[in-house]
Amino acid sequence: MAYTVGQVAKVAGVTVRALHHYDEIGLLSPSGRTPAGYRRYDDADLERLQHVLFYRELGFPLEEIAAIIDDPAADPAAHLRRQHELLTVRITRLQEMVTAIEFAMEASKLNIQLTPEERFEVFGDFNPEEHEAEAERRWGDSEAYRESNRRVSRYSKDDWLRIKEENEDWGRRIVAVLASGVPADSPEAMELAEEHRQIISRWFYECSYEVHTGLADMYMADERFTRHYEDIAPGLAAYLNEAIHANAISRA
Amino acid sequence: MAYTVGQVAKVAGVTVRALHHYDEIGLLSPSGRTPAGYRRYDDADLERLQHVLFYRELGFPLEEIAAIIDDPAADPAAHLRRQHELLTVRITRLQEMVTAIEFAMEASKLNIQLTPEERFEVFGDFNPEEHEAEAERRWGDSEAYRESNRRVSRYSKDDWLRIKEENEDWGRRIVAVLASGVPADSPEAMELAEEHRQIISRWFYECSYEVHTGLADMYMADERFTRHYEDIAPGLAAYLNEAIHANAISRA
DNA sequence: CTCCCGCCTGCCGCTACGTCAGGGTCAAGG
DNA sequence: CCTTGACCCTGACGTAGCGGCAGGCGGGAG
Fold first, then answer.
1. For a Cys staple, A14 with which of A18, A107, A116, B160, CB 3.0–4.6 Å?
2. A87 interfacial to chain B (CB closer than 8 Å)
3. Which of A46, A81, A153 is the closest to B85 by Cβ?
4. What is the domain count for chain A?
5. What is the rounded average pLDDT of the residues B56-79?
């Protein structure tokens, strides 16, 4: 099975020029030439090219790719495992970015200003370990958050308006309940906490009681969220937190 | 809040040189300068930089990034939604690559040789249209193939073992039928062709009669597949091809 | 006042190709 | 047999997105 440059280029989705380049720098030299000097690629060359393209897509410099591929201490299975791992790392990274975007959406919805550090904690350089711990602490369950992303991406303007309206209606009612002086573990307050949970579940992601209490704790831990609720009504952040916890316990 | 280049570089995880470059090409010019000519970045500049870095990480050329960011017909929420969508597309892409790697791992375990087309159907910077056309030609329905990918990626080791076993059992039986000398359009052969179709449907993708005959033709057209069946028993490739066609006609 | 760190503006270099230019090759058709 | 068009070859230059250094100014701590 021999292939010309053009055939290889077509099947692999690269340009002929790129294949010339790989030949020039010795990254991928065809196993032979025709008498006329035409490059002839065989199946082994194609396999090598496949690996080259894999690492290239992940952004590795060509020189490094050569080193990886030519590593004598790596059997085919080891390569596959390495590639698999690289991919999952990348996916994790992108999912973190998704989470960050979601966070920014949430913040902009509540009109919260992001600090410079927050702006760039996911973009730019970022330390993987530190960041992962941070994300865990923040969201507890990243799968729930991804679900949210999947849904939110499909919302129309009308959907957003409805969400806003529902949210504001809920806001007015909990302010009223707070003002009426009933305790946070009263049926009225717990009912509104439950409604809060259901709004999230309906519009964003499946919000279990556990996730809900985690969210409530974040509202207390993160000053910007605290302030958001405090600005609506003094004491609301703590009141809501308590109501959510009480609601979660009573339904468990 | 004003920041110097160095400060911005540090918090954003980019080099000072890169910021100089962005200034040079007009992608991100600081909102002001000190009397001494020092660049001064404010919060709005940081926000812009955040977007720049986002699109940069996804591989957009800087010129295009400028166009995207300066698009007057896009409010902040629209940007966030767009970014979100881009991310999910990327994640899907990477997950497809994971599927392909897993497929390759299994193939290498079962000692199955990959065709060149299979090698590159996921890698390479693949032209969506051309690629889809190619996949269409090969698979009849590209959605079916994606469905296959989605399913295959969730198979456990036990599933793979069962598939292998089912496949080998089917292989033994069709070899027996072939050896018995009954024609390819006999009920026995057609029944095995039908079973073949159902194995594919059960484990990989919804395999209509049309797709099935397309597959059968590929078995004949592609030497690798032909040899795979010829190695099991001489004449099997053509026999199976005929049986599949006969089966499709009789059930239509 | 001095020292050192940070900032400035060129300018050259690098990677991974894109894009001609100028010229041979091969299979099909007239 | 000869032509035509698609395909191949080797330079050689251009481009994007910076990295890195040189040579010189600014500014706050000691």
1. A18
2. yes
3. A153
4. 3
5. 86
Q: From the CA of B216, how many Å to the nearest CA of chain A? A: 22
A residues 164..223 contacting B (CB < 8 A): none
- CA angle A106–B75–B15, rounded 5-degree value: 80
A14, B127 Cβ separation under 8 angstroms: no
**A59 C-beta less than 7 Å away from strand D:** no
Residues B135 and B176 in one domain: no
pLDDT tens for A64-119 read 999 999 987 777 777 887 888 788 788 878 877 877 777 777 666 555 555 555 55
What distance in Å separates the CA atoms of residue A248 and residue A194, rounded to the nearest whole number? Answer: 8
Q: Look at residues A153, A154, A156, A142 and name the one whose alpha carbon lies nearest to residue A99.
A: A142
Q: What is the CATH number of the domain that holds A246?
A: 1.10.490.50
- Model confidence pLDDT, tens digit, residues A200-228: 777 655 567 876 776 676 667 655 566 66
Cβ contact B50–A83 (<8 Å) = no
Q: Which of A53, A57, A55 is nearest to A12 (CA)?
A: A53
Q: Please give the ipTM for the structure prediction.
A: 0.60
Contacts of A67 (CB under 8 A, 6+ apart): none
For A14, B91, B105, the CA distances from A38, given in Å and listed in that order, are 18, 39, 34
The amino acid present at B27, given as its one-letter code, is: L
Q: Residue B26: which CATH number?
A: 1.10.1660.10
Q: How far apart are CA A6 and CA A14, in angstroms?
A: 9
Which residues, at least 6 apart from A246, have a Cβ–Cβ distance to it below 8 Å? A184, A185, A189, A190, A193
A163 and A99 together in one domain = no
Placement of tokens 């790719």 in the chain = A65
Tell which residue, A18, A24, A12, has the closest CA to residue A51. A12
What residue numbers bound the domain in which B148 lies?
80-152
